[in-house]
C-alpha cells in the first residue's frame, strides 16, 4: 500500500541531561550546524535546532530533572539514530581523534555493508552506516 501523506522525516527530538555538553557534542564533534537556539524561561528549557548538510534534522532539548530512559538491554522504543557515511573508516578515525569511543566495525549480514556504533553524552546509541 502506497503512502500518500508522509513525505520525509522532519526532525528527531532528543532530550539531554547536560545542555552545554550535548550542544558541544552535536555541533563540534558531529558537525551539525545551529539553525536556532531558544531559551524558554517558562519551561527552564533550551531548544536547539540543528541541521546536517543544510537539512533540519535534530531538536535538542534540555529540561530540568528529566528521568533517564534505559536503552540497554534492548528496551522498547527508539533504538538508535543512524547516519550514512561515504567512508566508515575515515568517519571512525575522525570521531576517535575527538575522543569518541567507537565500537568495532561490523558487517551487515544482509547488505554486506560496514557499520558501527558510538554513544552521545547521554548514552543514546548512534550508528554510522557506510553507503
Description of the structure:
It is a single chain. The protein is α/β, with parallel strands linked by helices and about 130 residues long. It has two domains: about 10-65, 2,3-Dihydroxybiphenyl 1,2-Dioxygenase, domain 1 (Roll), CATH 3.10.180; about 80-130, 2,3-Dihydroxybiphenyl 1,2-Dioxygenase, domain 1. It has helices spanning about 20-30, 90-95, and strands at about 10-15, 35-40, 45-50, 55-60, 80-85, 105, 115-120, 125-130. It has a four-stranded mixed β-sheet with strand order 1-4-3-2, with helices on one face. It is globular and about 50 Å long.
List keywords for this structure.
alpha/beta, four-stranded mixed β-sheet, 37% strand, 16% helix, 2,3-Dihydroxybiphenyl 1,2-Dioxygenase, domain 1, 2 helices, 2 domains, 131 residues
Question: Layout of SSEs?
Answer:
Layout: E1 12-16, H1 19-29, E2 33-40, E3 45-52, E4 55-62, E5 81-85, H2 88-97, E6 106-107, E7 114-119, E8 125-130
Parallel strand pairs: 1-4, 5-8
Antiparallel strand pairs: 2-3, 3-4, 6-7, 7-8
Amino acid at each position: 500500500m502506497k503512502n500518500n501523506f508522509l513525505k520525509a522525516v522532519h526532525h528527531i527530538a532528543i532530550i539531554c541531561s547536560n545542555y552545554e555538553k550535548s550542544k558541544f557534542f552535536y555541533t563540534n564533534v558531529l558537525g551539525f550546524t545551529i539553525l536556532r537556539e531558544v531559551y524558554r524561561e517558562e519551561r527552564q528549557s533550551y531548544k536547539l535546532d540543528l541541521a546536517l548538510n543544510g537539512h533540519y534534522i535534530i531538536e535538542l532539548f534540555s529540561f530540568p530533572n528529566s528521568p533517564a530512559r534505559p536503552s540497554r538491554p534492548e528496551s522498547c522504543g527508539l533504538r538508535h539514530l543512524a547516519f550514512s557515511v561515504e567512508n566508515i573508516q575515515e568517519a571512525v578515525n575522525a570521531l576517535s581523534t575527538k575522543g569518541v569511543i567507537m565500537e568495532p566495525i561490523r558487517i551487515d549480514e544482509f547488505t554486506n555493508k560496514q557499520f558501527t556504533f558510538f554513544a552521545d553524552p547521554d548514552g543514546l546509541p548512534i550508528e554510522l552506516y557506510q553507503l
